[in-house]
Design goal:
heterodimer; A: 394 residues; mainly alpha; four-stranded mixed beta sheet; B: 274 residues; alpha/beta; six-stranded mixed beta sheet; 10 helices; 35% helix; globular
Chain lengths: 394, 274
């Protein structure tokens, strides 16, 4: 039987590798997603930093009323006020300008005489894209906050009062997380989603192609009239599906790990992504891929056409991704939870992120959970995969 | 040799195959003839072990398909009615893949694959992927993968259907060559002239039952017709008989067939279990 299994496995792998569309779906897309996730955070951070440091010119009205020291403070924050002639509210509302400032007459005098000096900050959070109105608003508020602190300090000094009385609690925050924990924590969310997406999608195309695809092409009957047993045919095809599931998983996670360590401020934070996270993700993800491959085969076997199988497999994608999301967002991940099929691998990944190291007990339990699930589902799938069922009952 | 004994297969109330018996000796071409939906393909599928019969047996070279389906499949080469190939594989790869299921490997397998390519005249396209092949080329691939292990018994389901004249001639030549080499050949066809030219024996199946078995000459003699087509129509109960509804009354039908092709007379007119 092993010989038949290997014969089918070899042929299915060769057939799949030659299928550009299938390979794109199975390998290239998850790989791109992995690289994107790994590089998205640093790109975002870089864009935010650039925006924060970029000189900002704000349209303003009544600039002449403003305190000279406030204008000086704006200057320190890279903000220049430019007198605007016209309807400032209208241009901001129309999103032609992101933000604007309006100073009322007597502003400087109010500050000098210790009365609340009034200014209006006009902003449109939708203007200028995601780094537009909101960012201008924040920078202006930071500058005004710094000015306020400076003025308050001067006023208290004039009254011979120690400004520290305004700070009853001095809270010094110390992050005791190790660099490994920080790296794993930052990455675990992305990794959980990556494992879920890759495992759910990786072998699906192949599972459909080797079952419903064979029916649709009219090649299945020729295979079933050979002496190969139903079990051999099923296992050969399952082996190919599992192999093609594992390849994108390995590639995607390795790419994610490599990019995270190559790019500063990557998805794993400035610490980079520790190697144990990659190892743990693979050790939990590969057994999960086995369970999902069997389930994909079960669904595809019942379908008459490629399209039928794709429709039927959609709930399975969610069945893998939802536990992944639940694990990514939940805090407590008990050790026993690692045994739960599908959820367990993600729980194990979360535990490793929290512990900052490879957790063999969690990995082993998640693998056992996955293997048990596969062992339970496999006989059912093989029973469904009989010659008569395949040909006539779908 | 293939022996079919009293095969029965019902789908719900529909009697797809209802007590079919005939045999196909070695060194003979046996044609299984019948109109669409008569039960030809279902019968062939039961012979190959793709469908389990509700009753009856199939013996291929002494092996019972119910008891030892793998041995039966090893003794068979089956050209199915599906004309599908793996588009990303070449004919040579098809033959190597299928040959692997019959214990062939290494140089023996390579030699058999090359022999089939030569036999079917596929040298020019043996190493091209089958994507875009003509119907005739695809049919050769399907035929080749059925013959790669040099089976003693060959089953072909409408092997010339949809082929052009040259491809039909080539296929018929292969069928004759197999017969001349002592193989047992069982094939189905719609074409009566083809059956008359090729077949040593013919089993006519109508609405799931064997209506008659014999050589084309015997069937023509039995019905007093001078062509197999006319004999076929007469055995089917006339042209009206071929068109009769499957819901027709089954009263008074005759059970054709019997062991070893001793079939006789007219077929039943009904297929429904009552």
């Amino acid at each position: 039987m092993l010989r038949d299994v290997m014969n089918i496995w070899r042929k299915e792998i060769m057939d799949t590798v030659r299928d550009r569309k299938g390979m794109t779906q199975a390998i290239v897309i998850p790989l791109v997603i992995g690289i994107f996730y790994a590089s998205f955070t640093p790109m975002l951070m870089k864009a935010m930093t650039a925006r924060r440091e970029k000189p900002l010119t704000i349209p303003a009205q009544g600039v002449a009323y403003a305190d000279a020291r406030l204008l000086d403070m704006f200057g320190r924050y890279g903000i220049t006020l430019e007198e605007y002639q016209g309807d400032l509210e209208a241009v901001i509302q129309d999103a032609k300008k992101e933000s604007g400032l309006v100073f009322e007459p007597g502003f400087t005098e109010d500050v000098a005489e210790e009365r609340p000096a009034m200014a209006r900050l006009l902003t449109n959070s939708t203007a200028g894209g995601i780094f537009g109105g909101g960012f201008s608003d924040t920078r202006l508020q930071l500058a005004v906050g710094a000015y306020n602190q400076m003025v308050v300090a001067e006023r208290m000094a004039a009254r011979e009062v120690d400004p520290s009385i305004l700070v009853p609690v001095a809270l010094n925050t110390e992050d005791l997380a190790t660099p490994e924990q920080r790296g794993a924590f930052f990455a675990s969310f992305y990794l959980t989603i990556l494992v879920a997406v890759t495992v759910a999608q990786g072998g699906l195309f192949v599972a459909i192609d080797v079952t419903a695809g064979e029916k649709e092409r009219g090649t299945l009957e020729s295979l079933l009239v050979t002496p190969a047993s139903d079990m051999a045919v099923f296992l050969g095809k399952l082996g190919a599906v599992f192999t093609i599931s594992v390849i994108p998983l390995v590639l995607t996670l390795t790419a994610f790990w490599a990019v995270s360590n190559l790019m500063p401020q990557g998805a794993a934070g400035s610490e980079g992504l520790p190697g144990f996270v990659l190892a743990g993700s693979l050790l939990t993800g590969i057994p999960l891929a086995l369970v999902v491959s069997v389930a994909q085969m079960m669904i595809s076997v019942r379908a008459r056409t490629f399209r039928d199988a794709q429709s039927g497999a959609t709930p399975l994608i969610f069945a893998v991704m939802i536990p992944g999301f639940v694990a990514a967002f939940s805090q407590a991940k008990a050790l026993w939870a690692c045994l739960i099929p599908v959820y367990g691998p993600f729980a194990a990944l979360g535990r490793m992120a929290q512990a900052g190291g490879l957790q063999w007990d969690a990995v082993a339990l998640s693998a056992v959970g996955s293997v048990i699930a596969a062992a339970v589902v496999l006989p059912v799938a093989v029973k469904m995969f009989t010659r008569e069922t395949l040909l006539y009952r779908s | 040799m293939i022996e079919v004994r009293d095969l029965v297969k019902h789908y719900g109330e529909v009697r797809a195959v209802d007590g079919v018996s005939f045999h196909c000796p070695d060194g003979h071409i046996t044609g299984l003839l019948g109109p669409n939906g008569a039960g030809k393909t279902t019968t062939l599928r039961m012979i190959c072990g793709l469908i389990r019969p509700m009753q009856g047996t199939v013996i291929v070279d002494g092996n019972d398909v119910g008891r030892n389906p793998a041995a039966v499949r090893r003794a068979l080469g089956v050209q199915t009615d599906s004309s599908g190939t793996y588009p990303r594989l070449t004919p040579r790869e098809h033959f190597t893949y299928f040959g692997g299921f019959y214990g062939l490997s290494g140089s023996d397998l390579d030699a058999r694959v090359q022999a089939v390519i030569d036999m079917l005249g596929m040298g020019q396209f043996a190493d091209r992927r089958t994507q875009g092949f003509s119907r005739g080329q695809r049919q050769k691939v399907i035929l080749g993968r059925a013959l790669v292990h040099d089976p003693k018994n060959v089953i072909m389901d409408e092997p010339t259907s949809g082929l052009d004249v040259m491809a039909v001639r080539e296929t018929r030549d292969v069928i004759r060559m197999l017969r001349d080499r002592g193989h047992c050949v069982l094939f189905t066809t719609h074409y009566m002239d083809e059956a008359a030219k090729l077949c040593d024996r013919v089993a006519i199946i109508i609405r799931g039952r064997i209506a008659a078995v014999g050589s084309p000459a015997e069937l023509m003699g039995k019905t007093g017709r001078d062509s197999l087509e006319d004999a076929f129509v007469a055995l089917a109960g006339g042209a009206q008989g071929l068109l009769v509804s499957e819901y027709a009354n089954a009263d008074g039908n005759a059970h054709g067939g019997g062991n070893s092709g001793s079939g006789n007379g007219l077929s039943s007119t009904g297929r429904r279990v009552r």
